[in-house]
Amino acid sequence: MDVTEATASTTTRTRGRPRSEAARQAILEATRALLEATTVRDLTIETIAKQAGVSKSTIYRWWPNKAAIVIDAVEAIVPRSRLAESKSVSAALTEQLVLLVEHYRGPYGRIVKELIAEGQTDPEVLAAFRDRFLLRRRTVARDLIEHGKSTGEFDAALNTDLACDIIYGPVYYRLLVAHLPLDDEFSHALPKQILVALHHPGIYGSSLCA
Predict the structure, then answer these.
(1) According to the UniProt record, where is the region Disordered (predicted)?
(2) Topology classification of domain 89-199
(3) What number of CA atoms fall less than 13 Å from residue 149's CA on the CB side?
């Protein structure tokens, strides 16, 4: 290969990357748009490809299945809170819970609910939801709690995994069972109740301690 051919080859590869990323973003946007009018169960790879103006093979270069596309489309929207230098861990967790409830009472809550429901009969969907969505957020929450334990904001003996379940469990319970609303009153009261437990785990006996 001479210099001219090598340059042309490099240029082609360089130009190809933005087009591939543009296709990926088009697929995610198409998925979000389609889910406004259809369910996760009824959504198909074919309709996503048509809406995005790409081939099915292009989709499969990025994702192994429909569930993974849907999760990545939602994952980009639903917030994950990280600790800013000016914030306490309590403030970061409060902000994250308020934003999460706000998103879950809208269309993305319906999508998450449908993914969990479909995952009960399809292990592949459940694994995708757990690995690509839930565990990413749980890792952030675990890091926040561990930081709070290291600085003395939370009790050092606090059981971090159980604390994560206590933080997010009520949100998913209301989302899935719908016995009470995911409203502003709930989103602001929940962090206050949870932080009482995180700051003073002894009031619940030894259950919150490792």
Answers:
(1) 1-21
(2) Tetracycline Repressor; domain 2 (1.10.357)
(3) 19
